[in-house]
User: Fold these one by one.
Assistant:
Number 1:
Amino acid sequence: MWGSEDTTTLTGQNRVVASGFKKVLIASDGSDQATKAFAVAEGLAKAYNAKLVVLTAVELASILPRVSPAELAAFREYAVGDAKTKVESLVLQSRTDGVDAKGEVLDKGESPVKMILEYAEAEGVDLIVVGTRGLGGFSKMLLGSVSSGLVSHAHCNVLIVR
C-alpha cells in the first residue's frame, strides 16, 4: 500500500519507501516545470501534513567574469528581490491552501545544487521536489544540471516533476 511501511527491492536491497514526509522542499527557479513541481510538492505536504519549504537558489557565479563589482551588486540586489517576491507569493498560496510553509532565498554559494543540498541536509528535509525541462529528441533523456545534481548527491529522496 502506497504511503505505508512497505518495502521494495531497489538494486537488490530492501528499503522503506514513502513512509511519510515531515518536511518537503520545493526547489523553484520560476520556470513552468518549477510551477508544476510546486503543485506536486504542495499536494504532498498537504497529504502528509508536512512542512513545506519553498526555496530559490540564486546563481551569480556565471556572470562574475563579465561584470564589474558595482554591476554585480546591483544584479544581486535585483535577483534576490525578485526571487523573494516569487517565493513569498508561493508561500502565501500554500498557507491559503492550508499548508504550513516558509520561504528561503539563497544567494551565497558556489552552485544552486550545493546551496540546495546543504540547506536540505541542515534543515532535515525528507523530500526534495524539483522540476526538469521538457526537451525534444535525444536531449529529453537528460535531466537538467540542477535536477541531475540533486538526484546524484542528495541525502534524501528527490522527486523530479515533468
Note: The domain at 7-161 is CATH 3.40.50.620 (Rossmann fold).
Number 2:
Amino acid sequence: MKIRTRLLDKFRSFAYRHAYADEFTDAYIATQIRALREQREMNQTDLANLARMRQSQISELEDVNNRSYKVSTLKRIAKALDLMLVVRFEEFGKVLPDMGKLDPEHLGRTSFKDDPVFSQRTDAMTDESAALSTKATLGRVLDGSARFSRDVSNVA
C-alpha cells in the first residue's frame, strides 16, 4: 500500500489527523525558517540582528521540537527576510501535497527585491500609473475589510 493511501486512511481518525497536522506545522515552520536563512547565506546571528532578536531565539525557532510560535515573532522573521507571513485555516486535502516536501527547494522564497511580479515592471508603467494601481488595489482591500467587519458585527 502506498504511503499516500495509508496516510489518507489514517486521516479518517480525528485525533490522528490533528496530531499529524500539529507535528507537520511545527516542523514546516522550523524547517522553512532555516531554509530561508540558508538560502540567503545567513547564519543565525545575521537573521537575529535583522529581526532584532537574540541568536538563541532563532535557534529555538529553527528547532522542529519547538511548540511555541507567536505570530508576532513570525512577522518579525518575515520582515527581516523581506517576505510576507501568511496564516490561514486550510482544508486537509489542500495541504496534503505539501506534506513531505520539507526540502529547501520547496521551502525557499524570493525576497521582495527579487520577486518576479515586482521586478517585471515595464518602463511604460509610470510612477503615476503605479500609484493609481496601488491606490485602486488598496481601496479594494480596505473595502473588503469594511464589508468583512460589517458582516461579522451583523452576526454577533
Note: Residues 122-126, 151-156 have pLDDT under 50 and may be disordered.
Number 3:
Amino acid sequence: MPQLPEREQQIRQAHAQLIHLVVEACQNADARAQLLPMLDQAVTSGWQSLVERIRRILAGARDETLLLGLDDEDTVIVRCILQGIQNPAALPDPNYQGDAALAAPGLASMIHAASRGDAKALHLVADMAEQMLRVGGDMARLGGILRKLIDGERDPDKLTKGMDPSGQQLVLDLLAELGKLGRH
C-alpha cells in the first residue's frame, strides 16, 4: 500500500476500531447489532454526518457521493471504510500502538483545537482520555492531564508528576508542540 500523508494515517489509526467494526458489520449481522448502539452514541456526540454515511454504507451504498459534504476527518474515515470493504488488507491495524514521539504533534493539534472551542476535537480528546485511563500507568496519567492541557496548564512539573522518563518526555514533546501551535 502506498505511504499515506501523516495526518491521514493518524486519522485512520485513531479510528481503526470503528473502521474495522463498520467493515465487519457490512458482512456480519452480529457485528451490526454491536455497532448500532455505538452509532447512536456517536450521533449524540456530534458525529451526525459521519454516522449518516456509515448507515448508508451499511445499507449497501459504495459510491463516491458518500464523501460529498464531509469534513476532512470524516472523509478519511469513510474512504478507509470503503477501501476496507473492497480490500480488507487496506484496513489500518487496530492494535497498532505507534511511536509515542509521533503522537505529540497529532495530540497537540487536537488539544489546541479543543481549547479553541472545536466541539469535535473536544469529543475526540475526551474519548482518547477515557481509553488512556483504561490502559493504566503513564497513559492513564496522560489521560488525566488532557483536560488541564486544554484549559491551558503548561507547567511541566505539575503535568509530569508521577510519570516515568518516557511519559515525561511525551508530555514535554506535547508541550513543545503546543508552544509551536500557540505562536500561530
Note: The radius of gyration is 17 Å.
Number 4:
Amino acid sequence: MLELERVVADVADALVAIDRSGVPFKAFQPGVGPYGEPQLLRAVAGRLNECETYRSLVATKRSPDLLILGHWALEFKLARPFGDNGKEAENWSVNLLHPYPGNVSAIGDCLKLCALSGPERKAVVVIGYEHTPPRVALAPLFDSFEVITQAVMGLSLGSRVQEFRGDLLHPIHQQLIVAAWEVRANPV
C-alpha cells in the first residue's frame, strides 16, 4: 500500500518540477504558485504518471480531484494568502474553513470523501504558498482546519502529513507546503 507520506512527498516534488519548468500559467508570472487547481492537478498527475511507482495509476476526475487507483482518493485545495500581484487575497482562507456540506471548502471535501465509495483510502490535501520568510504563515490555518473538522464537524482525521519546499521561482509564492490528512469514514 502506498502511504500518504510518500504521496505527499511525491506531490511536493512534482510541484517543484512544474515550478522549475518556468512555464507561466496564463499571463501570470512564472512559477507554480499562480496555477489554477484543475490545471495544476493535471500537471501533477502527468508528473506522477511518469514515475514507476504511479505509472498509469493517477487520474484527475471531478470527484475525487485526483485518484491513485487502488490506493488513494484525494481532494485538493490551494491556499494562497497573496495574489500574483503581491496584494493580500480576499477570503483566501475560506477555501479551507467553510464548514457546510456541498460547498467547495476542504471541510466540504472531507464530507464528500466520507460519502465516496471505492476501495481507496481518502485524504484531503492542501497546497499552500508563502513568502520566505512567511508574511502570513499557513500553520494557524492548518491548525484551525483540524479543530473545525474534528471538534465542530465531528469528522475523524489522521495526523497531518506535511512537506515543505523552498526556493521557488515566483517572487510572491516563494515556498510551498503540501499538507494532507487522511479522512476516516467514522466520525470522532
Note: The chain has a mean pLDDT of 95.
